[in-house]
Amino acid sequence: MTDPTRTPEPNPIDPAVEAALTASRSARAEALLEFARIPSISTQPEHAPDMVVAAEWVAAKLRGVGATEVEVVRTQLHPIVYGKIHEAPGAPTVLVYCHYDVQPVDPVELWETAPFVPFLRDGRFVGRGVADDKGQLVMHLSALEALRAAGKAPAVNLTFVFEGEEEYGSESLFAWIPQNRDRLAADLAVISDTTYFEGNVPAITIALRGIMYAQIDVELSSVDLHSGQYGGSVENPANALARIITALKGPDGRVRIPGFYDDVVPLTDADRAQIASLPFDEEAFRAETQVPALVGEAGWTILESRTIRPTLDVNGIWGGFQGDGAKTIIPAHAHAKVSTRLVANQDPQKIFEALRAYVEQVAPPGVKVTTTYIHGGEASLTPTDHPATQAAARAIRAVEGVDPVYIREGGSIPVTAAFDHVLGLPVVLAGFPQPNCNAHAPNEWLDERNFEAGTRIMVRLWDELATVPRGSEG
Ligand SMILES: [Zn+2]
Fold first, then answer.
1. 166 is catalytic
2. Phi then psi for 362, rounded to 5 degrees?
């Protein structure tokens, strides 16, 4: 907070609330560490009990800050934590979203310590979930605790939705949202699950990519076949899968599925100029990701390729013999997980159908090929000039002493599209970790500085949003 180029307001938040935050600094850090010790991995069934423990932890904290109607909502998979603090009659109502589930931890040998033994050292939290997204959830709770300690209530009405399936496609939440429109009635939504920009530059994310995730299974027989006896006379599922995958995307970075780009909203020259103006250092990005070279889509910059262009990747591939030495087989089957990152207005179902049809078309004869939809979410876009976006910009400027940049993020938060498209709410994406925080990777980390700043920005944000006209168009 001592960067000479930044000039925060002398008192960006109420002095009594600031005093409470100063006093609670170590307790707030400990709360994050405690939360991050719960191995709430949503995609691994053996962690289902931990999901409940994490949900109850969040619910207890919400009760502790005086939230009403706090409920750990049982779903077909992991619970949704709901609650409200509606103590500002006439003020806007804000739907607040974070997620308490985390990504799996493999490869676990690359972690400095056990992923669920988080620590705070040299101003940095390290552990699974400290950035994505438990740290941000704790920032929200901390801001409320400080307000309460100062005898205050948030200046807007807050409705909390903290989910446990963000890393697993949010299916339960998608089913729950349309059934609970009344409980979710709001003027806008604030989602804290994004990051600052490279170089720790405060940012508001105005666009997110969507996703369509599928699995391709190639089957030959119920058992592996002897490659001497059968080789040359049957199709090999691993070879067949390799041919299918090769057909999906060209060396120019273009996805070859017919119709894939049909619904992509074209970028204006102004959009491209705004993206080009961002302080993005390609070489620093390359060095930090430790890759030999960056490859983008032909005709687009690296930053555009990784944020506003749709793409396709194999996320995993397996089949056949994987042990030491040699085993002369033709594998019985081979498999791949494939995902596409989508942009406005690509429809995940439509993209899946196009993928399935294309896989069938390019699959060689002699094997049985199945393409299965795993999950999907639409892309979203919120204008920079929306009053809620501008309120968030003021809160950031007050605390950080610098204007935020507006970014388009390559990742997906499917709930954003649900709030936007199903509930019709403008969505403000305010998130605080650094973008290279190793989310989803070993040694995930969060600057304590950003943890502190983000907490204060939340306090200020409720004041700023109180001035936003209700029912502003998204
Ligand atoms: Zn997240």
1. yes
2. -95, -10
132: CA distance to ligand 1 center in Å? 4
Q: Would you state the torsion angle of the CA atoms of residues 258, 259, 265, 269, taken in this order, to the nearest 10 degrees?
A: 40
Mean pLDDT lowest for which of 231-245, 333-347, 401-415?
A: 401-415
Tokens coding 291:
């890759």
CB proximity list for 138: less than 8 A, separation 6 or greater: 28, 31, 32, 35, 451
Q: In terms of Cα–Cα distance, which of 440, 455, 413, 435 is closest to 129? A: 440
pLDDT of residue 472: 59
Distances in whole angstroms, Cα of residue 337 to Cα of each of 30, 189, 260, 351 = 38, 32, 18, 15
Q: How far is the CA of 103 from the centre of ligand 1 (A)?
A: 9
What is the whole-number distance in angstroms between the Cα of residue 92 and the centre of ligand 1?
26
Hey, is 147 helix, strand or coil? helix
Q: Per-residue pLDDT tens for 440-468?
A: 999 999 999 999 999 999 999 999 999 98
Angle at 163 between CA 62 and CA 75, to 5 degrees: 105
Task: Write the DSSP string, 52-84.
Answer: HHHHHHHHHHHHHTT-EEEEEE--SSS-EEEEE
Can you tell me which residue has the tokens 């899946």? 352
Q: Record the pTM.
A: 0.78
**Given 132, 145, 163, 166, which residue is catalytic?**
166
The token pair at 34 is 């405690």
Question: Cis omega (within 30 of 0) on the bond before 324?
Answer: no
CA of 411 to the centre of ligand 1 (A): 9
| Two structure tokens written together for 363 | 């699959």
pLDDT digits (tens, 9 = 90+) for 269-288: 888 998 898 888 999 999 98
Catalytic residue among 101, 132, 378, 420: 101
Residue 305 has pLDDT above 60, yes or no: yes
